[in-house]
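Re-run with default settings, no changes from the original entry. Doing this only to confirm the output is reproducible before filing.
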Amino acid sequence: MADVTLSGAIRGNLLSLQHTGDLVDRTNSRLSTGMKVSSAIDDAVAYFQSKSLKDRAGDLSVRKDNIDQGISSLTTAMSGLTSVEAVLTQMKGIVLSAKSASEAERASLGTQLNTLASQMNYLANDTSYQGLNLINATTSNIKVSFSEKTAAVLQVDGVDVRVSTGNILTAYGTGNASVIAGSNAIVAIAGAGSSYAGFSMVSAAVSVFDSYIEMFDSGITSVRTSAKTIGASVALLQTRADFTKQYINTLKIGGDKLVLADLNEEGANLVSLQTRQQLGIQALSFANRSEQGILSLFR
């Protein structure tokens, strides 16, 4: 089958019209998808640069989620420490009351003190977030990694604010000074003998109660110090979370600049291409008319 031979004018106009049609299709695609580079075929360099930036943003999003969870864990610990401090303050108040109380009143106050000590232990044990408790064991800790590219890791060690025994302040040995031991100096004051029970067996000596008060003051100070340490870590994590959020946005915007289409520009391009397409059709029509003029000579 013989090929149809077109004149140079017709073929030139036809090729120009086809090229314009391809540009119209590309512009319509960009307007519908909003992407000027949707695959490596469009622009390999821009496509892979954009992908690298967005992959980095995705990795940092995972890190930010971990930072947010770290903030929640430390905030939970801070709330627990605040409550423990409140209980210790109540216990200190009971000791202050016992200084001027009668023997019977001291026995009742000793019972109240034991109850508060037990409740403080329960409170400390209940202060956990996703299975992590940072205020009932010195062996617990949390590690938050900020980046996979550097060794930027924040580790916060736990503290133990529990009373080491449920019998806090129930015994005081004759002639013994107060015994302060255990985590954060929040412990029982105990004597050598086990027969001494509560405040009812404690002499009215001011120095004895002052020793108890000093123990609670030490415990309150320790709890406050732990809260300040954790609070500083929360502030740092929040700073890193804000930085990471901004960094992620910067990476995404940078990646979009490489592949997103300018819709205003593409809209103007489409109008121009449609005009060019109409002119191409007219030019092709004019080229056909010249051949039709030659045909009329044979009529």
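The beta strands are 141-145, 153-157. The first strand starts at residue 141 and ends at 145.
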